[in-house]
Predict the structure.
Amino acid sequence: MFAQWHVWNSLLRRLHGARLRLHRLYRGPLLGALLAAALLAGCQPLTSPAPSETATPTPLVLASHDSFNISEEVLARFEREHNVSVQVLTLGDTGTALNKVILSKDAPLADLFFGVDNTFLSRALAADIFEPYASPLLAQIPDDLEMDPQHRLLPVDYGFVNLNADREWFAAKGIPLPERLEDLTDPTYRGLLVVQNPATSSPGLAFLLTTIDYFGEDGYLDFWRGLKENDVLVTDGWSEAYFSHFTVGSGGAGDRPLVVSYSTSPPADVVYATDGRTEPATVNVFPPGSAFRQVEFVGVLKGAAQPELARKFIDFMLDVDFQSDIPLQMFVYPANPNATLPELFVKFAQVPPDPVIFDPAAIEANRERWVQAWVELMTQ
Amino acid sequence: MLEVRTIHKRFAPDKEVLQGVSLTVEPQEILCLLGPSGCGKSTLLRIIAGLERADQGRVLLNGSDITETPAHRRNVGLMFQDYALFPHLNVAENIAYGLRMHGAPASERRRRVEEMLALVNLEGYAHRSVDDLSGGEQQRVALARTLAPNPTLLLLDEPVANLDRLLREELLEALRRILKRLHVTTIFVTHDQEEAFALADRIAVMRAGRLEQVDAPAPLYRRPANTFVAAFLGFRNLLPILEWRDVHAVCTPIGTFELPERDAAHPAVGARLLIPPDAAVLDSAPSSAAHVPLVGRVVAATFRGSVFRLQVAPEGSKEDSVLYFEFRTRGRERLPVQGEPVRLWLDTAQMCVVKEA
Amino acid sequence: MMQAALYALPILFLTIFYLYPLLAILRVSFGASLTEAMEQASAALRAPGFWRVLWFTTWQATVSTLLTVLVGLPLAGVFARFDFPGRGVMAALLTVPFVMPTVVVAPAFLALIGRNGLLNVWLQRLLHLDAPPIQLEQTIWLILLVHVFYNVAIVIRTVGGFWSTLPPTLAEAAAALGASPRRRFWTVTAPLLAPSLVAASLLVFLFCFTSFGVILILGGLRFATLEVEIYRQAVSYFNLPMAAFLSIVQLFFTFTVMALYTRVQARLSRTLRLRRRAFARRPASWRQWAVVGLALAATFIGVLSPLVALAVRSFTLGDGGPTLIYYQALGENLRQSAFFAPPITAVRNSLVYALATLAISLPLGVIASYALVQPRSRWAAILDPLLLLPLGTSAVTLGFGYIVAMGPLRASPWLAPVAHSLIALPFVVRTFLPALRALDQRLREAASTLGADPLRRWWTIDAPLLLRALLISAAFAFAISLGEFGATLLIARPDRPTMPLVIYRALSQPGLMNYGQALAMSTILMVSTALSILLIERFRLPQGEEF
């Protein structure tokens, strides 16, 4: 892939020379200017710093989903230490990204992939795209986060999908926060909840799974029928639910004081506050059985160009440095308990008392049926 | 100068618009392609200009074969019926367009545009927008634009068809004057025989993709090759020939006429007798032996200024056929009125036999 | 020969970057088990949900299109016929909704007409009402409204652009023949506008047909489209055969609609004497001023007010005070993220892609248009529907196709302008084609006989006369590229973010600062879009001033 880049580069440099001739050819400014501008501007990012002669860093490619983030400094440390230049490719949301990696099995896009979560774990393992790697750092990771005994996928972080509520709204209206999931079908909570479509959104699916866990396969549809009659709002993704409809996230434009979000949303609300508030406007609500644990995994891709470096990167990801970077970069909990948690996390990101821990195999086996039944019910 | 050899062109399998047309135009000659609409005359013009490809046949200009030469390298000027002036350019820019394409320097272009504007009597119009011109002015700009690059051959497609009658005659005259002064070889296309006679050195009459007759105006008028040409030139008195009495005498529904010697080559079948509208005199005394009398009744009489026209139903003719005649007006005489019986003298010397087309 | 090679270019482009990846993913999807796929297909066809979804998709697209035309046509007329202060800026602003991500537009709408929205609060206070008078949330009306908001620019610009080049003498002739203004419109102007109107409707229909975000954000789950179903099958269940089958259904459907429309459009075209300069004059009477004022007010309320609301919010703190902190935050790497890019970099990246998109889609679109107007052209039959198909193709499916088929190019940032061009091409062609069809062939012939070779003929005759259409095409192509968020379709390079990418990234975590940054970046996106479009439209070809 990188060889290809150099071919592109030289090709474009030659085009760059041709630009002058082209310019003379087009005496009219419109096309000429546009063409030249496009070529000139287009060349800029491509002809960026030529690798220095002394020690060309080895390229390492990490594929991930849209939400992947890392501190510049932490990443730079790894790059310096191993003389590596890390190229990150984001491939869409979690599901899309995984599917792209599976589809490119025969000609891998990257050396390693981060971002498989427990709802997609079975599919990822079944696709047979990861090399086992028993990182020595796994010793520091709690056993209940490890879900693949063959160590093809190693846990990096975890988080919880659960209900968030607008504290002030509920206080002002004098309505108590819901204490049981069943409360949500009560007329008191009519038109207050916004959730995500489990067919297109990962928190949406997580919430659906908790209801299946709580009400059982026989009961969850009745619950959802109740929600539907109680005017639940469904959006296709988390951002739309949170920023368009949730009263806090939308700054008052929305009219839903209850949203399916993450247990780490309250600290984010403080970190990204604009009024210097020290207390989040949102609170986690944990009716029994309503929080879903999500674990994210990383693995070395089969056919990786740099398997050795990829393994080093995994060690790096599981080590304290990167792990301590995780909370404020991706707003999830580090898998490694030795990592330092920021104060805000300790204060506001409560861990739900009884999170639902779903069997990945059951998810993969039943997802289509469950979601399908849900869709049928909700679109009737 | 220009030679067109057996041009064939079909637009659809069953629609052959040109069926082997051959034509030669002499240097400095004004040739007119005359024919009804749809006869293929415009297509022929477009093939000569290089805007259309012939299926068969060649086009030679000054001896060299230009059949395959694209339009822009032929230096053949074409003036369109609706002028096709460039709406985004002003008068001067329109006229200078061809010069620009031929790479003439700016000073040369400026000089030539002035010259052309003077030629077509439009001095001072250089910076007008073409949208603001009258029809006649547009026509003259179009002519100036076509002439500006000094085309080897000038093609005019119905150059005055879009103008009113008065303007048309004025412009035809101006056109002829300009063309003759510039000595430019010209083909022009029209469906109007008056225009053709006014402008052309020679006229080629076309019908359904073929040339029917190519001749100078006078011989063409006097001896149309067939009834189609005759009819197209405006002749309406084409009498069926019932039989030949002898070598000279033809029997028609209105009587038998003794023709002069030169028309003796009578065709065996399918011919008609043409009596030109001006072949009759109203006066009682015949001026020569060639005149034969015709008695009839006036069906219609119209006064046309210098001439007047009569439609006469001959006495005793079986069908209710009508003959058309034209007489010069002389102040003193009384014009016949409708329904009045009338006696005419027909000049057999002006009659001729034309083939059935 | 040269011509054939030229006309083959757009087909080649579409083959490599559209057909090939699409066929590749279909092949991978169906794989060995074609029979299995067929079984699933027939199961899908028997499911009542499928037909419901297809019916709803078609229905909402049709109604949205009709409404958009209804709203857009009078506005197009005002823009085409009248010259008024701020006309150019207004026209540029109208293109802005086009680039706005639904995630930021939806709250803007809710902030205006939601239950707690500005308009409702005002009306409640004004009329002393107990309940908000406007209750559109979760109704089909809100979806339709937002569809009109997004697409009205297509009608105004495509039809208006064409309208402004129509010679006014035609309507004047009708007036002289005793036609009332209304009859004048229906008997003369409307038939002449028909080709461009059909073209615009077609694009609007396709956009609404494949609408995805708008419907789910605003309408909830009750209104699901085919596109959502494809995503669900492809991503959630990884049921590629089913996703492929549904993609084919969607393609088939769009293809049929398009084949129909393009035929109608070709038949409607007439040759006209197009004018180079748009015919627009100052309103002459108070009635005309009133018409213009009314149209502008409507445009402002319907299209611009959500945008203005959005921009205002980007300068407002939560409690109402004015602020610049969101813009400052954009320039500061708060998280010390490795993928941080200052706004100027994001703007630059976006502009680079947009220019590259222009450089690809404009020449290809123009060439394709010429291929389409060739009389008795064999190209037209293939090219015309083919050009429109990318608009009706599921982004997820094509994105997977790129992964399977594009080899080393799949991670290249240069794939972005290519993908943007696929979406921009139909706009370029649909905007350019009606004008091209209307161009009098005799003008070109006259130029030829005057010695202009094909290239110079194009440059001196076609280009200046078609300039308006060309610029509007360019504006669309540019805007499409600026606003395109290619995450689903392509592999993104987080270290080289574009404006939409920065917006989406900000919106991936809670917190008002994130939301504010998204608003700030959206405002920058709006402004740079409007400026770019203004700039594009300021381009003028040199005329032969001297002769």
In short: The first helix of chain B runs from residue 41 to 49. Chain B touches chain C through 39 residues (CB under 8 Å).
